[in-house]
Amino acid sequence: MVNKPSAGIKKNPDLVIINPDLPVLIPKKENGNFGYVNQKGKFIIQPEYHIAVFFYEDCNLLNSPNEKARKFGSKEYATVEKDMISYRVDKTGKRVYQFKESDLGKCKFEEYKQQLYQAYVLNGFYGIIEKAKFVNAADYRDYQIYPQYQYLYIMEGDDVAHPMIVASHNDKFGVIDVNNKVIVPFEYSNIKRNFSWKLGKMFEVTKDGANYYYIDAGNKTY
User: What is the pLDDT along the chain (222 residues), one digit of tens a residue?
Assistant: First the structure.
């Protein structure tokens, strides 16, 4: 009996960590379905799902009235959907839980982190201001980034002092930081404004407007 727990902790050699900032498994679409690849781009969970999100906590399950369901809300599992049925899968791809409406509890929301920065539009162009310090719209020194972009969107993240900002310039999308340094070059037709940066330190991008995939902050494709 003593040996049983250690058997379950065996390290999976496929779950390689090249970049510790990234998830060990990353959703990827192939032939219309989603699966998960490791950091080397190898499919570990085959693409058979209509929806696949990052391995992350599910607060509805963590607060489930069904005690047995709560463990499946941990970040060791991911939510997937196939044939209109939602599951939690583990990192081997095993379906360990099928969602039931009666198991879903109420989320206890964390205190909202107030953003330090916000987008500001001047003469049709977008810039960035630090809300607490912005006084005079006519003074260029009051801007964190003077309005010069077609579009800006501050991505949701845990570090409000150093957010990632999706920007559009010359009809192409890229990513900048609050110092106007280019993080991801302006070569995409769109970058989704979703929780991919908060959940996985990644961006969901497309060059053709149809096929989306994930890149990291170094513009590496997965």
Answer: 444 444 444 678 899 999 999 999 999 999 999 999 999 999 999 999 999 999 999 999 999 999 999 999 999 999 999 999 999 999 999 999 999 999 999 998 777 778 899 999 999 999 999 999 999 999 999 999 999 999 999 999 989 999 999 999 999 999 999 999 999 999 999 999 999 999 999 999 999 999 999 999 999 999
> In whole angstroms, what separates CA 40 from the centre of its chain?
18
Same domain, 75 and 160: no
Q: Which strand (E) or helix (H) includes residue 35?
A: strand 33-37
Helix (H) or strand (E) run with residue 88 in it = strand 85-89
Residue 146 placed within a domain:
yes
Q: What's the domain range around 162?
A: 117-215
**Residue 219: both structure tokens together:** 């513009």
Q: Is the dihedral of CA 29, 34, 39, 43 positive or negative?
A: negative
